[in-house]
Amino acid sequence: MINQSTYLHCRPLCFNIISSLEKRFDYIFDLKKVKSKSFILSAISHPKFKQSWIPNRYKSYCKQIFFDECYLINTDKEAVLNTDENVDSDNSDQEFFQVLSENCLDVDIDIQSNHNCINAQAMEYLNSKNKDFNVLNSFPIIKKMFFKYNTTLPSSAPVERLFSSGSQIMTPRRNRLNDKTFEMLLCCRCQNLNSNHF
Length: 198
Known about the structure:
By secondary structure, the chain is mainly alpha-helical. The protein folds into three domains: 1-30, no CATH class; 31-150, no CATH class; 157-196, no CATH class. The protein is 59% helix and 0% strand. The protein contains eight helices and no strands. Helix 3 crosses helix 6 (140-150). The longest helix has 35 residues, at 93-127. This is HAT C-terminal dimerisation domain-containing protein.
């Protein structure tokens, strides 16, 4: 589009801006980068976006990442399988190995059916047309993923920076200031600090 435009003097600037954006956000433009995983899962687990934003060439790749993460979240949730069957010490070796092989078969079947259930839940979520947040209540694995990738820990750093410039404004002798006066004094103090730096 820039090549076809009539920008004569700004064309190098436009190319430079585009190349800088591509360099800075390469993990967003190229979704196969490792750094892109959290962004992909954050967007897909959000009911409003799901797969609508993904370019066609990345759809199957992103869907596979989503399914893998659903499976990981579910396996993290489950406890390690415990076998409650006790084998007597006087049993023969043949019986011991028979019990072990039966347990392994049962575990393999359980894992496969669990994997199919997770895939079915993920596919049902992706195919759902509902974009409301309440849809997450129907899909507990996706809800857990949504909370994992779309919530952040609150930080008090911006508030601390704001009030660190308060100096004499936040003292006990000024504890009866109303909100408007406090805001005015704080803004004047910040403006005064900024004008001294020039």
